[in-house]
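Figure 6 in text form: structure in, sequence out.
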């Protein structure tokens, strides 16, 4: 009887671990879109929404300044809805490409997000704008 029980325990543990993994994949606490929305509204510090508006539409006033002729200017957040995942990831890493050279953003804050977090934000922006 002990031998049969010892054979049964590892099979039960393995089957239980497999069921737990499937459960985690199918029934996570937050969907990717919900997680992305949460990160978009409060990534780590300044909200994406403050500059890029609701779901990345842009147009939010960031700052008012004066040019060298003392004309008032308004700096506004850009529309990021058409960014590819790679472009969004580069921006969140405080980089952009100009003439095939990588440069640092002068305004964009550094967020130190993981690839999974960037993917969630990207998915949120894409899914939210599908509904419009």
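Output sequence:
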């Amino acid at each position: 009887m002990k031998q049969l029980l010892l054979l049964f325990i590892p099979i039960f543990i393995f089957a239980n671990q497999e069921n737990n993994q499937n459960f985690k994949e199918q029934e996570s606490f937050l969907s990717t879109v919900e997680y992305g929305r949460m990160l978009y509204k409060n990534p780590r510090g300044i909200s994406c929404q403050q500059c890029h508006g609701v779901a990345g539409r842009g147009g939010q006033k960031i700052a008012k300044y004066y040019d060298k002729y003392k004309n008032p200017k308004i700096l506004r957040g850009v529309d990021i809805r058409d960014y590819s995942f790679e472009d969004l990831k580069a921006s969140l890493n405080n980089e952009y490409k100009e003439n095939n050279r990588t440069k640092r953003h002068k305004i964009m804050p550094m967020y130190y997000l993981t690839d999974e977090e960037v993917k969630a934000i990207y998915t949120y922006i894409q899914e939210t704008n599908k509904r419009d």
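Caption detail: The radius of gyration is 23 Å.
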